[in-house]
Amino acid sequence: xxxxxxxxxxxxxxxxxxxxxxxxxxxxxxxxxxxxxxxxxxxxxxxxxxxxxxxxxxxxxxxxxxxxxxxxxxxxxxxxxxxxxxxxxxxxxxxxxxxxxxxxxxxxxxxxxxxxxxxxxxxxxxxxxxxxxxxxxxxxxxxxxxxxxxxxxxxxxxxxxxxxxxxxxxxxxxxxxxxxxxxxxxxxxxxxxxxxxxxxxxxxxxxxxxxxxxxxxxxxxxxxxxxxxxxxxxxxxxxxxxxx
Length: 244
Description:
The protein is 57% helix and 3% strand. By secondary structure, it is mainly α.
């Protein structure tokens, strides 16, 4: 007598240390649909990044027209997102994710233009401008952390909406709670703050710390972020030593 065949599942057994017992992916963080989280934190992060861009010295702007143009473009995209989030709190709009990605892409483009200009200034500016350069570098570095935190949040496992689904894609980041499920609540899933923390540690250590990138795009993004951060921190430090 043959045993009945079982339907294939999208889950995959993942070994966990013997101390915590054996778990399948259905019990691990990536096997669970993410909690429905508000878009307000990432929206606020975008507003902070825009404010930092407006505070940059004029000499860090490659194109002067970008100072008014970028906030206007971001506002045209972000106002409908905020309006629909307030009006239809629990309704998903398919256009929101592309709009968010355009927002982040515009900020990323402006950020790397500023990094290039900052590098040029650091190599040639006189020592009398050290204070201005230092504060500008801090603003650029904070923007780095915000932008890549947004990218990680928006792209991991197909995005914040895909993560809500039971059959969401495989994870792009391996958080500590995923390999040690007993160290967190049984239904733990990463929030926006977790992705900002990943961005912060990568920008300071120039490499992953406790959260590992698993996919090619995640590794590539972390490389690009670390390069931008290294240019800013390394050249500021070198410039400071030279001035002193």
